[in-house]
Amino acid sequence: MGSFGMLARRALQTETPVMVQIQELIRGAKDAISLAQGVVYWQPPKRALDQAKELVWEPSVSRYGPDEGLPELREALTKKLREENNLHKSSVMVTAGANQAFVNIVLTLCDAGDSVVMFAPYYFNAYMSFQMTGVTNILVGPSNQETLHPDADWLERTLKETIPTPKLVTVVNPGNPSGTYIPEPLLKRISDLCSAAGCWLVVDNTYEYFMYDGLKHSCVEGNHIVNIFSFSKAYGMMGWRVGYIAYPSGVEGFATQLLKIQDNIPICAAIISQRLALYSLEVGPGWVIEQVKDLVKNRAIVLEGLSPLGKDAVKGGEGAIYLWAKLPDKYVDDFKVVRWLATKHGVVVIPGSACGCPGHLRISFGGLVEGDCQVAAGRLKKGLEELVRHGMLH
What we know:
Blueprint lengths: L8 H4 L5 H11 L4 E2 L11 H8 L17 H15 L4 E6 L2 H12 L5 E5 L4 H9 L4 E5 L10 H10 L6 E5 L11 H14 L2 E5 L20 E6 L12 E6 L5 H11 L6 H13 L1 H9 L1 H11 L8 E3 L5 E5 L7 H12 L1 E2 L1 E2 L8 E5 L5 H21 L4
Helix pairs in contact: 3-10, 4-10, 5-6, 5-9, 7-8, 12-14
């Protein structure tokens, strides 16, 4: 028996998380600055943190809470979904972050061997969620070359022609890794196609507040739609791990099955984290929008850093915290370029191949304060100038 004889095939066939590889790269590269991980540079609202600080001695914080989340948080979220997202027929479950929310949904809706649909460039963790649950028939659709929007014509054909019909279609809006926003009419069309085909649509709205240039975020609702949200980016709560699922109230049995999954993975999201989430909601979205406003400066700085690749090579940045860049044609091995940028130029980005698109880079402009962002972008520009002119010579 080989050394891997006793390990699960589903784990072995799941891709290694790109962030783990990137973190190793950062540790190995001396003084490298990261434009890699999808994080924001701010902490949760001070008022909310001050309130949460008082809670450590509160006995209820050390006990389990209801699997589906604290009642007062769920009530506040239901109100938020109605007022901000125009979702009126959705029930709420609080999870330990949006990634766990996504795994809950895959385990609730998909069987091993089902086919599912994503669009490249896709969010690598969602792809891995399918792989590790045995959903290995992942149909990866194209995006429009100019806009990076999911190709709805391809989706229409695929849902008609694939037998059995795919169980689920998923998109991130605005996009990770693309940073592009799916306009409402297109989102509606994708939803209608899923509805007609009898398949689920799962929309990840993690970056709902991260919209620039006057764009407005919108959600779709229906008995075939699940919406996922997160506190991580908006309220700077990455390490606190709180996300939530808005699932259709009208679908019989959905809540019961979802609870089985939840009870076996986290039981409930951390109580102190849920309290901080509630206090942050009380501070409100206005606070988030203020933080996000400043990111347009970072976006401009990083765009300048990417300028050696040429204007048409860089897309995205309409929403979320990402720009998506195409490397010159000969650099299909983007991992090699990423390693070279880290070791030779001290700047770290994500290889597009992790998102199903070799020869590209994902650059995050959310994680650094403006001054550090300038340093990182300067290094990136220098590296890319060298890459375009001379290649990776040394």
